[in-house]
Amino acid sequence: MSNIVVIGTQWGDEGKGKVVDFLSDKADIIVRFQGGHNAGHTLVINDKVFKLSLLPSGIIREDKVTVIGNGVVLDPWVLLKEIELVRSKGINITPNRLLIADNTPLILPYHSKLDQSREQATSNKIGTTGRGIGPAYEDKVGRRSIKVGDLADIDLLKQRLQVASEYHKFEVQTVLDKLLPIRDEVLQYVKSVAEWLNEQTNAGKNILFEGAQGSMLDVDFGTYPYVTSSNCLAGMASIGSGVPHNKIPYVVGITKAYTTRVGEGPMLTELTDDIGWHLAEVGKEKGTVTGRDRRCGWFDAVQVRKTCMLNGVTSIALMKIDVLDQLESIKICVDYIDDSPVYEEIPGWKTSTVGITSMEELPEQAKCYIQRIEELVQTSVGIVSTGPERDQTIMKKDTFF
Ligand code: IMP
To answer: What is each CA distance from 126 to 80, 266, 286, in whole angstroms?
Structure first.
């Protein structure tokens, strides 16, 4: 293996957590590089379910080092809660296993308040997770963020809070009173991460960069303004960690075998009929973070072809193929005419693919479906997922990792 970035090619919730966990077996270090606790990564290991929203998925493997990079926005209280939660399931987390970049911006209470009040007040709802992600990124580019490393210097912290309060109109002392009790606990994980990561990669360690959200939620290339406030494309792995882009040669595009979306905004292949309900039910399509129902629809090959191009995807991991098992026929969107999808229809395979671990064992029609997707999105499928467990996975022989 070499350095790999794993990103979602649709609207998030493609199943990145499972693939990151699966691939992290061969990685030494797992890095999160954008987003915050708006991400929802579900991992199922030996019947134990881990729902992570902030910590890198690799945290549940005790022999791995995990990193929260500067491209993330960090709620320090959520961080500590999630550390406790993972510890309560018997996983050891120490400052040797979890490193946080000192230049990571904090999400503070005024960010989530603003996020929620804006969503309530506006006529143009985005359907955000209400976690303060957007306002925290605004502060980063507005040059009034508090960085996690600022916690080390109380005078500097006060100064920075003062600047932020001029904009957000909060009581500095109130926020300070909340931060001071957790300061030491958080600071033990804080480090100058970019230098460390570069030393590690130069020494031959394998780094896996774990994306959050999905390409269609990217603030530049997604369905703006119905997007998140960070860049979710593979290029962000470099900016959000300090590891140069030419040191990250592989891009795995996590792609659901159909389409889902949480929140508002266009979704051309959305199904509001029985098939949509069927996909939602069989695929258990409920948002990990907010518990909202996900909108479901057919696979959109036009969209995935574009996001494969934007990310430079070198291999697709096709997730949840088993959710399509019972369908009579399956549609793929191959074009748009006047913002309406044009479909190609193929017969369903109407037999279980759950738990299959080799391409040969897949029903012929499922193989045809995968092959057609490869042709349409002009990228090869290296992994096929046939269930939520780690071992319910097909790894194609010619896959590079
Ligand atoms: P925000 O990231 O909370 O600002 O929300 C902006 C949009 O991104 C909303 O439509 C959210 O539902 C969506 N979103 C944010 N994080 C995720 C995710 O991890 N999976 C899927 N959708 C997400």
So the answer is: 28, 11, 18
